[in-house]
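Inverse folding, one chain.
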């Protein structure tokens, strides 16, 4: 999706309200939870009388306005972040309330125009009711009628078990404290290794992703919290990779799969969604293994049963947010993070040879450029649906030396969860789901039972095989498996019927044509922006489909991410791509192109010609490519690697050291294509030697707002490492949708990134106000914490709240009422409620004694027969109230109905409560109402 960020709203700004609000976890809506077609925006509200779709509500005034979305059912815990959008504009990332259904986002005074479409997404996937209705109306096109022929089998199949017997066990160490997490995190792991293998053996460490953390055996109850409450058990997500662990162990690897429920249950309000915490956890485990390698007698029994570990040969495997965690661990092992944000501060006694990243997140878009990687992209991912993990390959281009191979493997028909057996129905101990959903049950690519959709066991075979291929190449140095990973186009028989397509950057590739400012385009093509809200500039609009290459980051437009768009109506004019300076293809065997064509298209052909700086030309040949199987629910605009030999250029006498232009000539009928890049390619895998890079970490400074005046602060930025590098700095302009950007050269020990922030004091209670900045590596640099800023903390006391009766003794047909009064106005909405209590000293007002429209607006559809009002909902019936920002009063009313039936006087009882400055409930006075019969 292409979206525009609003920099003033971040997850950190939401903590004061959404994260700590103790809303009851029941079927009752949270404060602000909407009913279809309802709108509670007050007259004079700066947000205006905005008609809202089902599931949405705006409450409060001005800077205290709050946007709340409530799902009709619990939203399963996942790895993608929840985002709110207004049209193509990113409003912010809300935090969940404990009921698992409601998500709240302070609007900070932003104006929503009438007619603006509100959307809630996760990983590009639409979650709200309007999105589900749109999906149900879609009739996706069928996949290509003539599927591609199977790839040739690779002579070496890494999925074949090795010669060693395997042994397994578990260890549990003392929990550890990590920066930013209030509660300790477990140090548990499942170990599978070889028995009887000679010498010290290489290590593969697995880290699972973000999933529910706790379950109640025998029920459907799932929770994401830590530690697990009494009566529940931790979900053993770390045991979900046993198939891959056993395969690697049989081949001689010591494997360890780490539990991370303690991070998952606490990462909602972390700026980086827990990447640094997961990195710390990984490195704490590696440090223990280094200790045990030196003193084997001190190791747990599960470790002693397997072969000794060689920490100089480590492969990291991460799933979902675990992928981002192991990427950060690899980066931190080469370029240490600032000590204050790190949970591990000891020496690095290991060497990470490669990463395998399965359906990973990459919120920071900050890959480790000098550590080889394989990114597995599940074509039917229903969680990280935008397949943002593609940036682990694309985001390394030009950053460092480029010798590390970065592979992307697109697995047609794979979902997100089934790579972990503990997230798979029928295999998991806790309740589990298929994360892909087509709402209407029909998707030609991803619905279970279709020709392209993989079963759970087939998908797990793919995962184990490609993890083993990566281990064999990155750790073992066996180049015979490289064709499975680098776009050569080979298949592994052990992966069964799965269709796995790959491309790569790095290794023995030399950059030739990378779209950007130094490249011009003419003929039948034009430069396009991967992320841009303007259709004329964007490579692909959201209505056309999704591309993993164009995954949204923090801002749109985002400079520095470009491609070449081609469109033709017949065999037409070539697209000429020219470099500002001649490039060298000397020593290359082929020209490797990464080209996107539309999903389900067939037979796209391009003639490929190159010209040197003197104008000599040579036609290298033709390439042919088909689109991936895709539907509107899949991110299938993905580039295929196409190679054409350079022999013709050599024969024509071109100077391969000075190539100036590339021409692509469409053949046949109408079509479209996008050129991601072009490289000189030759076989082999060079050693990935890390370069001396500069590291940048953006921190967050929290300051008191004060009572008056204006104070200036600077965003804290740490620059470490060696040499100098370049990053792109982005700074949102306060109060607008604009984000400025510039390229900055950074050096350790200097203050090259200087972002000042003005904080204005006041004396009214309100939210914290955040001012953000974020960075991305360009060249010669890596980024750890990509986002930070200055947060002005509210330092004013919450107003006192008083509740007095307005009408507590009425005749039926009139309304009971109580007035809520604040001691002074606040800059935000002040919320509370009245918990209705059973009446024990007389008849209680029932559900048929109140106005029916009011009852349904408050609680949804209420079935007959009549019941006491306090028993309307399981878990307690509450009358919510809120005092909008800038005001001091509101009223709670219960309109009664005149039924014409002779009946005794009926009563209503309840206990009021509000919330203090820490969002802890504060008991208030009792309330009582009397309704007399009108007959």
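Residues assigned per position:
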């Amino acid at each position: 999706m292409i979206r525009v960020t609003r920099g003033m709203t971040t997850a950190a700004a939401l903590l004061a309200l959404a994260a700590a609000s103790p809303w009851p976890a029941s079927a009752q809506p949270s404060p602000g939870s909407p009913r279809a077609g309802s709108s509670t925006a007050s007259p004079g509200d700066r947000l205006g009388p905005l008609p809202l779709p089902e599931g949405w509500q705006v409450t409060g005034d001005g800077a205290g306005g709050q946007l709340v979305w409530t799902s009709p059912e619990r939203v399963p815990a996942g790895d993608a972040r929840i985002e709110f959008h207004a049209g193509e504009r990113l409003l912010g990332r809300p935090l969940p309330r404990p009921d698992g259904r409601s998500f709240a986002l302070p609007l900070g005074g932003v104006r929503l125009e009438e007619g603006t479409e509100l959307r809630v997404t996760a990983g590009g996937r639409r979650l709200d009711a309007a999105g589900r209705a749109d999906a149900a109306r879609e009739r996706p096109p069928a996949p290509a009628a003539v599927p591609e022929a199977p790839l040739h089998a690779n002579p070496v199949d890494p999925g074949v078990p090795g010669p060693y017997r395997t042994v397994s066990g578990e260890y549990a160490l003392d929990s550890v404290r990590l920066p930013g997490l209030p509660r300790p995190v477990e140090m548990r792991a499942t170990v599978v290794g070889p028995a009887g293998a000679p010498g010290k053996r290489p290590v593969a460490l697995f880290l699972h992703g973000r999933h529910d953390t706790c379950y109640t055996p025998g029920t459907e109850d799932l929770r994401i919290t830590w530690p697990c409450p009494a009566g529940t058990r931790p979900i053993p997500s770390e045991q979900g990779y046993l198939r891959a662990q056993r395969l690697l162990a049989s081949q001689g690897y010591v494997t360890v799969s780490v539990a991370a429920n303690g991070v998952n249950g606490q990462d909602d309000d972390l700026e980086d969604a827990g990447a640094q915490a997961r990195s710390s956890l990984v490195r704490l485990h590696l440090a223990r293994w280094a200790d045990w390698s030196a003193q084997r007698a001190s190791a747990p029994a599960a470790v002693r049963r397997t072969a000794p570990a060689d920490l100089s040969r480590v492969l990291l495997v991460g799933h979902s947010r675990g992928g981002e965690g192991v990427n950060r661990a690899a980066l931190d092992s080469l370029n240490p993070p600032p000590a204050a944000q790190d949970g591990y501060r000891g020496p690095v006694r290991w060497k990470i040879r490669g990463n395998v990243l399965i359906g990973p997140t990459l919120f920071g878009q900050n890959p480790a450029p000098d550590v080889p990687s394989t990114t597995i992209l599940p074509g039917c991912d229903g969680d990280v649906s935008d397949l943002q993990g593609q940036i682990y390959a694309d985001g390394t281009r030009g950053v460092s030396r480029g010798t590390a191979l970065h592979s992307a493997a697109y697995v047609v028909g794979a979902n997100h969860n089934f790579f972990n057996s503990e997230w798979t129905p029928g295999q998991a101990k806790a309740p589990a789901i298929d994360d892909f959903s087509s709402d209407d049950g029909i998707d030609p690519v991803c619905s279970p039972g279709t020709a392209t959709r993989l079963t759970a066991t087939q998908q797990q075979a793919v995962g184990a095989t490609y993890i083993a291929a990566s281990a064999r190449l990155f750790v073992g140095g066996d180049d015979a498996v490289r064709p499975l990973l680098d776009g050569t186009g080979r298949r592994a028989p052990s992966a069964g019927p799965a269709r796995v397509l790959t491309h790569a950057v790095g290794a023995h590739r030399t950059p030739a044509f990378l779209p950007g400012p130094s490249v011009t385009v003419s003929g039948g093509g034009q430069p396009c922006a991967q992320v841009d809200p303007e259709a004329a500039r964007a490579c692909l609009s959201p209505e056309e489909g999704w591309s993993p290459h164009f995954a949204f980051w923090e801002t749109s437009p985002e400079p520095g991410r470009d491609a070449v768009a081609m469109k033709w109506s017949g065999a037409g004019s070539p697209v000429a791509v020219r470099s500002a300076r001649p490039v060298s293809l000397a020593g290359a065997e082929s020209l490797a192109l990464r080209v996107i064509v539309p999903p389900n298209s067939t037979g796209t052909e391009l003639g490929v010609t190159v010209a040197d700086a003197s104008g000599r030309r040579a036609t290298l040949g033709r390439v042919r490519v088909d689109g991936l199987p895709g539907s509107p629910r899949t991110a299938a605009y993905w580039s295929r690697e196409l190679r054409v030999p350079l022999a013709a250029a050599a024969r024509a006498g071109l100077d391969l050291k000075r190539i100036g232009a590339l021409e692509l000539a469409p053949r046949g009928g109408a079509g479209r294509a996008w050129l991601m890049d072009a490289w000189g390619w030759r076989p082999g895998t060079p050693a990935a030697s890390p370069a001396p890079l500069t590291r940048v970490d953006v921190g967050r400074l929290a300051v008191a707002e004060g009572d008056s005046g204006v104070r200036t602060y600077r965003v804290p930025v740490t620059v470490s490492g060696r040499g100098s590098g370049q990053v792109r700095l982005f700074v949102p302009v306060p109060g607008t949708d604009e984000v400025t950007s510039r390229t900055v050269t950074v050096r350790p020990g200097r203050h090259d990134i200087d972002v000042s922030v003005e904080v204005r004091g006041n004396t009214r209670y309100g939210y914290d106000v955040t001012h953000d900045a974020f960075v991305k590596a360009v060249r010669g640099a890596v980024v750890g914490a990509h986002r930070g800023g200055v947060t002005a903390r509210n330092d004013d006391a919450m107003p006192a709240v008083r509740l007095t009766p307005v009408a507590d003794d009425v005749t039926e047909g009139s309304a009971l009422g109580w007035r809520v009064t604040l001691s002074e106005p606040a800059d935000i909405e002040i919320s509370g409620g009245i918990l209705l209590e059973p009446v024990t000293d007389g008849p209680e007002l029932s559900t048929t004694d109140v106005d029916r429209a009011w009852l349904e607006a408050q609680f949804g559809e209420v079935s007959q027969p009549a019941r006491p009002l306090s028993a309307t909902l399981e878990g307690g019936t509450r009358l919510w109230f809120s005092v909008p920002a800038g005001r001091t009063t509101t009223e709670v009313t219960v309109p009664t109905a005149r039924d014409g039936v002779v009946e005794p006087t009926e009563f209503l009882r309840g206990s009021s409560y509000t919330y203090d400055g820490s969002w802890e409930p504060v008991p208030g006075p009792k309330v009582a109402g009397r309704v007399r019969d009108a007959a």
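The chain has eleven helices and 52 strands. The CA atoms of residues 817 and 893 lie 4 Å apart.
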